Amino acid sequence: MSSTEHDDELLSAVRIDIPERFYLLPGAALIVGTTIGLYRGSRTASLRFLAENAHRTPKTVRGWYLYNKTKNYRVLLGGLKGAGADATKLGLTAAGWVVLEEGCSRLGLDDGREVAAGLGTGTLFGAVYGLPWKGIRRTAGLGVVIGGTLRALRWSKGYLSEHAAMRARELELAAADGRAQAAARDVQDAAADTARGAGAGPKTT
């Protein structure tokens, strides 16, 4: 056996199956958090710079150049800081959702894993962003609603998949019956042709 065939066997033998929700949800949260943080951070830095320098506007062309240059640097830095902060917060929140959902699955609570994950994630979100108790209750309630919606979608997906599988089996059985009937008719026709051929053979005197 060559080394290439051995490597191919090892590659085909080593396989890691990672559920999609382990990387899709945190990845989407990181992208959304980066986008929101970049916009909010840059806008806040721009307004802060304008407020801090409102009483000392430049008087020369060189002064305006340095003013705009410094402002752009501050806006870029503020956007990057905001993107990092919001991406981290939303990423941790999404990771908490995944951990809670997986924990419920391992504990045998698969039917209500989305609702439990939504409740825990909403509470975690409010705590991470430092919301008051009233805000935490709202985020927890929103998490329960989102979890219930995802649970309904998962049930609908399972129902439709099961219905499609049953329909496919019915079609396969119908096709198999049709093939069996066609084969039986072919056998009957062949037997009839053989019988007619034997009856129409030469007669001896």
The outline comes out as elongated
Order of helices and strands: HHHHH
What portion of the residues fall into strands of 2 or more residues?
under 5%
* Biggest pleated sheet: none
Instruction: State the secondary-structure class.
Output: mainly alpha
Enumerate the spans where pLDDT stays under 50 for 5 or more consecutive residues.
none
Distance between the termini: 75 Å
Please tell me about this protein's structure.
84% of the residues lie in helices and 0% in strands. It has 205 residues and is mainly α. Helix 4 packs antiparallel against helix 5 (133-199). The relative contact order is 0.07.
SSE blueprint:
Layout: H1 3-13, H2 21-52, H3 61-106, H4 113-128, H5 133-199
Helix pairs in contact: 2-3, 3-4, 4-5
Summarize this structure as a short list of keywords or feature phrases.
205 residues; mainly alpha
In short:
The chain is built from 5 helices and no strands. It has helices spanning 3-13, 21-52, 61-106, 113-128, 133-199.
